[in-house]
Amino acid sequence: MKSTFFLLGLFCCMFTVQAQELETNLQQIFDDFQLMGMSVWTSVEGEEQIFNFGLKDFTRNLEVDDNTKYRIASISKTSSALGLLKLYENGLLDLDEDISTYFGYTVNNPAHPDVAITARMLLSHTGSLQDGSGYNGFLSATYTQNPIPDIAQLLVPGGSYYTANMWRTETPGTYFAYSNLNFGVIATLVEKISNQRFDVYMREQILQPLGITGSYYIQDIPDINDIAVLYRNQGGWTPQTDNYQGVMPPPPAALATYSPGTNGLYFAPQGGLRASASEIGKFIRFIKTDGLSVPGVLSSATLLEMKAIHWDYNGSNGDNYFGLFNRWGLGIHHANLSINDQICPNLEYGSFLGHPGEANGLISDAYFSENEDIAFSFLTNGSFLGYQFGDYSAYYTLEEAVFQALCSYFSEALSVTDFSKKEICVFPNPASDLVEVQLQKPISLEYTIHDIHGKRILTKKENNTSRFSFSIASLSPGVYFLTVNDVSGNNYRQMMIKK
User: Fold this and answer.
1) How do residues 10-45 score in pLDDT, each as one tens digit?
2) Of 364, 386, 413, at which residue does a domain stop?
3) Which of residues 385, 413, 441 is at a domain's end?
4) Prior bond to 113 cis, omega within 30?
5) Which of 15, 413, 439, 497 could crosslink 44 through cysteines, CB 3.0-4.6 Å?
């Protein structure tokens, strides 16, 4: 009978007072660093929170909200990698095949002509390509010329934009060198195999199936007013990109004659995905859960291959970017391995897998823990103070501050989750008089009731009990919070409603 009462009559829910504390801490960070706007998404044991601060458009005084889409910089690479891996899963791409086979012309390192460049190398930044002196000129031409130039003009000796330093001296597959160009080649490879524009392929195969309305192509965005303008302080807040002011730009004329498979850099696979903090969370949790969060998009085997270690820094086999990059999967960064790439110092969390980003005044991060069911994304569209190197890591001081706030939240939230697994149930809820609290087993505890403003109403201890009750008859109708702490320091919080 008691079991039936639990199943039918009890309403148990987690109320995260920790989320309120996190919001307060994030607001302080927002103020201290004089940010334009900021969004933070978190997930703990599948429970999601989203926090927004400041403005997405300074000129029009538009506030950041849950729908605000940022140009998320290099986090885009992890999304782009999912697109290429979809072709791998479908048997259309061999990760270890010479990419020249797919392009129809030779793409190799002139210093090592007999060593094939493979998709696996591109995804793990070990293919010996780098953003040489020809890269920026080619990128500019990509966006300004009609017709759009072929990427072969950058990759192949004799090309109009080719420079010898597009290729490193190390043997392909042996040395890590982070490069945006790798993902331009990846996007072009996606187009060559699928015979679709990269943005269209990604929308149909990855983004829409994951429930993401963001896109690599601005004309796909449902509401142009959702786009965050990116800013730097250049004698005052100065727009850097995406300053659309509510007007959707016309489709580029150059795309009318564009041939898929010639230059996927046009769609900025290396940094041009526009997405909200929670939309980033969708593909981060998708990877975290081995595809279980959205079945049918990619298999767990493919995602495990993505997360596997494909490059591991040994002190001399790569440029580890001031200590930030020490381990890499396929389009995904393994962090939290040392002080320099530290996100959370709690070793029980293991590696954090994801990607950082920086471009046009924006800073972004999206990671999930290898060992715990926690994940986050963080974006800001500008800091009036600029960004300073970290106090103890290769991340910026802003990122360090956000990470510290998040790690404190994760620690408390996980302890709440662990304690809630003891099946503490509060009923009835809503209630008008007596409230009962049922525990799975007897424990000694202290419980406190606060009102919605944080004022303490009641504190009381119970010794070795599995059930206790208290009266709320004298309280005014409204929302209250019950906090239960056990002798081990675990805590549980839940919202109560007084009718």
Assistant:
1) 333 343 467 889 999 999 999 999 999 999 999 998
2) 413
3) 413
4) no
5) 413
Specify whether 176 is located in the same domain as 280: yes
- Range(s) of the domain holding residue 95: 47-413
Question: Are residues 197 and 58 both part of a single domain?
Answer: yes
Q: Which residue has the higher pLDDT, 261 or 488?
A: 261
Position 347 scores a pLDDT of: 73
102-116, 268-282, 318-332, 424-438: least confident range: 424-438
How many Å apart are CA 466 and CA 393, to the nearest integer? 46
pLDDT above 90 (res 93): yes
Residue 428 CB-density burial (10 A; 0-12 exposed, 13-18 middle, 19+ buried): middle
Are the C-beta atoms of residues 306 and 206 closer than 8 Å to each other? no
| Position 252 in a domain | yes
Phi, psi of 48 (to 5 degrees): -105, 145
Mean pLDDT (the chain) is: 92
Packing angle, helices 75-89 and 300-307, rounded to 10: 130
In this structure, which amino acid lies at residue 497? I
415 token code pair = 């302890």
Confidence of residue 325 (pLDDT cuts 50, 70, 90): very high
Residues 224 and 198 both lie in one domain: yes
Sequence-ordered list of residues with C-beta below 8 angstroms from that of 404, at least 6 positions apart, any chain: none
Q: Which of the four pLDDT bands, split at 50, 70 and 90, describes residue 475?
A: very high
In the chain, how long is the greatest CA-to-CA distance? 85
* Token couple for 241: 């990109």
Q: What is the pLDDT of residue 413?
A: 83
Instruction: Tell me the one-letter amino acid at 6.
Output: F
Same domain, 197 and 312: yes
CA distance 100 to 106: 5
Locate 413 and state its tokens: 């939230």
- Give the pLDDT confidence score for residue 419 in this predicted structure: 52
Q: What is the pLDDT of residue 14?
A: 41
